Amino acid sequence: MTFLKVDGIHHTYFTKNSATTALSDISLEVEEGEFVSFLGPSGCGKTTLLSIIAGLFKPTEGLITLENKTINRKQNKIGYMLQQDYLFPWKTIEENILLGLKLMDKLDSSKKQNALELLDEMGLKGFESQYPNQLSGGMRQRVALVRTLATEPKLLMLDEPFSALDYQTKLRLEDLVSTTLKQFGKTAILVTHDIGEAIAMSDRIFLFSARPGQLHRTFIVPEELKKLPPFKARNHSSFTKIFESIWKELESLESENEH
Q1: What are the residue boundaries of the ABC transporter domain, all occurrences included (predicted)?
Q2: Which pTM was predicted?
Q3: How far is Cα 4 from Cα 180, in angstroms, rounded to an integer?
């Protein structure tokens, strides 16, 4: 059974004076436990598609199903990790990580214990009573990940979650997020502009063309890279080969876009 199915998605934004087609005839499938990336030039509708998959709004045409059921916002099966961590500055780290569970009315002692254990696994034991402004950007993103995982989502949406971080922190977090998601068998979709990040973290990469966004090509990450944590994958000989191949495709898409 396909875990996530995106079938014939077409989306047009209407204003009083114009109509802009953001996505045209997108169909793809994601298996349970798979990590996939959406990559493409600016304006290819990656974030629009992510929002439709999350059930934030309905597409003009087409259907999204998760475990054979039509997606809706009330399911609480989808977790988000965004570029900004959106931690509440007036709440402690412990209060922040339990917030999702509280809002879903699912907070009990075992779920709280689970969230605190996750915090420990992320190397943040002892920070429970501190506030977000006392933490570095990378630490805050780890707190945001704990808050997301604590609600036990079926599907994780990662919308450029590392792009605001310095390069060293970004590489460390890629490793941490990748191994954590594999450990929990989570299904994830990453939206990124970074080819290297997409290759290092994913099982498959969906490359989109722009205006309107269409699925241009699917790249399967070589098995030897999938087995490695992202940092090691970046240093493997197969990495350069697939990087160059995606780079060339992206270059041709971007030059088409300019004409």
Answers
A1: 4-235
A2: 0.90
A3: 21
Tell which CATH architecture fits domain 4-77+156-258.
Answer: 3-Layer(aba) Sandwich (3.40)
Compute how many other C-beta atoms are within 10 angstroms of the C-beta atom of residue 148.
23
Per residue in 92-125, pLDDT (tens digit) is 999 999 998 898 888 999 999 999 998 998 889 9
Residue 182, number of CB atoms within 10 A of its CB = 14
Rounded distance, CA 15 to CA 52, Å?
19
Intra-chain end-to-end CA distance of the chain, in Å: 42
Q: Structure tokens of 246?
A: 């995606």
pLDDT of 75 above 70: no
Sign of CA dihedral 20, 24, 30, 35: negative
Residue with tokens 């098995």: 223
Residue 212 Cα distances to 12, 13, 40, 52, 79, angstroms? 9, 11, 12, 15, 27
* Ranges in the chain annotated CATH 3.40.50.300: 4-77+156-258
